[in-house]
Amino acid sequence: MTGASGLSVAEVWQSLMAGPTAENQDPGHSILWSIRLPRLCTALIVGSGLAIAGAALQGLFRNPLADPYVLGIASGGAFGAALAMWLVGHIAFGPTMGSFLGAILAGLLLLTITKKQGGLDLYAVLLAGVAIGLLFSALLSFVLVLAENRAGDILVWLLGSVGHTDWHQLGAMSTLFVLGMIPLLLLSRTLDTIQLGENTARGLGVDVDRVKLVILLCTSLLVASAVAYCGLIGFVGLVVPHCVRLLIGPDHRRLLILSGFGGALLLVGADLVARLIMADREMPVGVVTALVGGPFFLFLLGRGRRHA
Amino acid sequence: MLRISNIQTPFCLEKGLSLEIHQGESVALIGPNGAGKSTLIRTILGLNPYSAGEISLLEQDLKTAPPRWIAQRMAVVHQHEERPTGFTVEQLVAMGRYPHEKLFSFADPQIQPAVEHAISVVELTSLRLRDGQTLSGGEYQRMRIGRALAQEPQFLILDEPLAHLDIGNAHQIASMIRTLNMNQGITILAAIHDLNIAAQYFDRVILLSHGHLWADGPVDTVMTTENLEKTFNIPFAMASHPTTARRQFFAMPCK
Fold first, then answer.
1. Is the CB of B84 less than 8 angstroms away from the CB of A195?
2. Min CA distance, B89 vs chain A (Å)?
3. What are phi and psi of B29, to 5 degrees?
4. Residues of chain A contacting B104 with CB distance shorter than 8 Å
5. Which of B70, B78, B85 sits opposite A200 (nearest CB)?
6. Does residue A291 sit within a domain?
7. Is B96 touching A (CB cutoff 8 A)?
8. Does the structure show a pLDDT above 80 at A29?
């Protein structure tokens, strides 16, 4: 349990064993239970959710460059959450609902624009996703201008951090995570058949249109649970599924689960770096993942072009 | 039975088309480009909208039948298919088990007997662990037929299964399809470009022209030089195959 304030392994173990409600006046105990542990759990859930969402979207669109951020779904979620923060503040899961609705809206827009006879226009998906992302980013800036007194709060949230959640929020977040993840795991064989193209998948008994909607809903839930509480943390959904696919192949049953573990690991690591890289302040974890993910994305793009 | 009753589609099958395919038959769909072969097949598979008529499989209207129910009874080999990276031949064939699988099964479908059987019937046992992307055109087509077989269907629909194959692969695969019909009783409906393969390997032939049914029946009744000349607009000569005695056709050079 590393951080700005040093806790030894023995101290951590003692506090863990004592439980959260122990009457312990030791500051280390309170740091562990109200700061470090929620933070760790948040990183695990958000990282896992983003990576599973990325793996499912890459499978659905048959494109290794697809992820909730590249496709504009996260921007939709960010706009929805910011709008809710401006209008209703942090009450009654407003940002969560807003984020979910924004993500769904962006996803539906993407499906509608790229629909053509016999399936999706896979070449248009990335372009449309980028355009949708820009559109929602512009709307987000508009909200920031309008929300004068709350703009500071929104900006800090937007930069991406896993350190702002308490146990109650974690409860809501993990509920959304489970609701989004389980249907995706159930659809992993279906995602395998979709790799053969939509017509062949239909011939194998897949209700392709319904599957698209379910995947969109579930990835929106996962993205909403991440964006509403932790802001924009990019590239986890892009990098992790790709690396896992290189290691274990394209079978989605294993790919989704192992991407979940990989994403959790990556975000916990990135958060650690974000907290330790500068002694006196914390770097937003979104900056760390983007610094890792950006060059990786460019590398994939370059490799894809050479192979095309 | 697959029954098509008075199907009409915009642009192609405008006048309405009816036909019945009975269990155990092997039927070749022939006709010139634009005659409506692919349109008819795509319409049966629900990929083309139709404005009137009804298509039923085993007395069940295909418009309302659940996709899984259809896939358990009818397998399809489309003209085109994407070749995904990373899946082995075995995994690709095992996807044919999808309509029979539970929603989330961790049981390895590869080891199911139906998959084993399908791979051996299409003679891909030695290539079972190869990446599907590295297969030749003929091998990939055999894998697709294997996958259709793993579905354990009663009906197998193929849209131009021999397109882009060399003469050796075309005959081997046509013969494989015939064996499936003869030995396993699978009903076959295949759009076939090559007239001689249709005459050699199928029992019933449906000749389409300009979106309507020109002739339908046994090879010897439908595949006459007169019918072929009228639909393909070139003169034909006919002979008997030296070993099988089936009809074979030769296109006469155009003037």
1. yes
2. 13
3. -105, 115
4. 185-186, 188-189, 253
5. B78
6. yes
7. yes
8. no
Per-residue pLDDT of A169-195, as tens digits, reads: 888 889 999 999 999 999 999 999 999
Distance from CA of B104 to the nearest CA of A (A): 5
pTM above 0.90, yes or no: no
A41 falls within a domain: no
Query: In terms of residue numbers, what domain contains A229?
Result: 51-276+283-298
CB contact under 8 A, A250 and B103: no
CB contact under 8 A, B76 and A203: yes
So what's the pLDDT on residue A21? Answer: 65
The domain limits of chain B are 1-58+154-165+177-255
- Cα–Cα dist A249/A243, whole Å: 10
Q: Does domain B1-58+154-165+177-255 have CATH number 3.40.50.300?
A: yes
Asked if the structure places residue A183 within a domain, the reply is yes
Q: Based on the structure, what is the number of domains in chain A?
A: 1
What gap in Å lies between CA B90 and CA B229, rounded to an integer? 45
B17 - beta bridge partners?
A: B7
**How high is the pLDDT of residue A304?**
59
CA distance A289 to chain B (A): 27
CB A306 within 8 A of CB A82: no
Handedness of CA A195, A196, A198, A203 (dihedral sign): negative
Task: Copy the structure tokens of residue B238.
Answer: 């006919």
> Is A303 within 8 Å of chain B by CB?
no
Q: Is the pLDDT of residue A3 over 70?
A: no
CATH number at residue A98: 1.10.3470.10
Q: Smallest Cα–Cα separation from B86: which of A123, A64, A185?
A: A64
Structure token digits, residue A204 = 């194998």
Question: A100 vs chain B: nearest CA distance in angstroms?
Answer: 26
Summarize pLDDT for B170-195 with one digit per residue, the tens: 999 999 999 999 999 999 999 999 99
Sheet holding B212-218, edge to edge: B74-77, B155-159, B187-191, B26-30, B204-209, B212-218
CB-CB contact of B110 with B94 (8 Å)? yes
Three-state DSSP at A179 gives helix
For testing the chain B interface, which of A60, A62, A202, A256 should be mutated: the one with the most B CBs within 10 Å? Answer: A202
CB atoms within 10 A of CB A169: 19
User: In the prediction, which pLDDT does B8 show?
Assistant: 84
Better pLDDT: B236 or A166 = B236
Exposed (0-12), middle (13-18) or buried (19+): which is A24, by Cβ within 10 Å?
middle
Q: Which residues contact A32 (CB under 8 A, 6 or more apart)?
A: A1, A7, A12, A15, A16
Which has more pLDDT, A3 or A101?
A101
Helices (H), A231-284: 236-248, 252-276
Residue A198 lies in a domain: yes
